[in-house]
Amino acid sequence: MKVYGDTNSGNCLKVKWVCDHLALPYTWVAIDTLKGETRTAEFLKLNGAGQVPTVELDDGRTLAQSNAIIRYLARGSRLIPDDAFAQGKMDEWLFWEQYSHEPYVAVCRFQMFYLKKPVSDLDPEKVKRGYAALARMEHQLVLTPFLVGDAITLADISLLAYTRVAHEGGFDLDGYAAVRRWIGETEKFLKLPPAR
C-alpha cells in the first residue's frame, strides 16, 4: 500500500498514525502541497480532486478523504467500537471534524504557520468558529475521557490532528483543561511526542 501525503497536513498524519498504530505495512510517498505536487497530471490520475492524503491499495484501487481512509484501514480493529450506536457517534465526530473544526482551526493554522500571517489578519469569523469547535470538544471531554466514551476511537485520532497544533493558528488552549488532558492521553496512546 502507498500513502501519498504531506507530513505538514494533519489530515495526512491521521492516516500515518492509524497505519503505524495498527502496524499496517505501507510506503509513504511524500507530496509537497505547497509546491503544487497534487496538481501534476500523474497525481491527478490517482485522485482527480488533487488532494492528499490518497491511498493506493496493492491492487491499484485508490481511496481519498482522510476520515474515509482511516475508517477503511481500521475496520475490525479496536479503534472502531463494536456497538452500532457507538460507531454512529464516532462517525458523527468524524463528519463534524471536517465540517465544523478543520475549516476553522486548520485554516487559521495554515494562514499563520505557513503563510506567516499575524493573528490580527485572521478572519474573525473563522477564529470565532474555531473556538466554538474547541468549546464543543471541551464540553464532551469533561463528561467522558474520550470523544465516544472510555476508549480511544478514530474520532479521537481524527480530532487530535489539528487540535494538538491549534496554538499554531493563534488558538489559546489555556481555558480548555479537558481538551489539554485529552491531547496528552491521545498522544501517549499513539506514542507521539508532544506537539511543539
Can you give a write-up of this model?
The chain has 196 residues and is of the alpha+beta class. The protein has 2 domains: 73 residues, Glutaredoxin, CATH 3.40.30.10; 107 residues, Glutathione S-transferase Yfyf (Class Pi), Chain A, domain 2, CATH 1.20.1050. 52% of the residues lie in helices and 7% in strands. It contains 7 helices and 4 strands. A 4-stranded mixed beta sheet has the order 2-1-3-4, covered by helices on one side. α1 links the parallel β1 and β2. α1 packs parallel to α3, α4 runs antiparallel to α5 and α6 crosses α7. The longest helix is centred in the middle third of the chain and has 31 residues. The radius of gyration is 17 Å and the shape is globular. The chain starts with a strand and ends in a 6-residue tail after the last helix. GO terms for molecular function: transferase activity. Keywords: Transferase.
Brief summary:
This protein has 196 residues and is α+β, with helices and mostly antiparallel strands. The protein has helices spanning 10-21, 41-46, 66-73, 84-114, 124-143, 154-163, 177-190; strands spanning 2-5, 27-30, 54-56, 62-64. The mean pLDDT is 97.
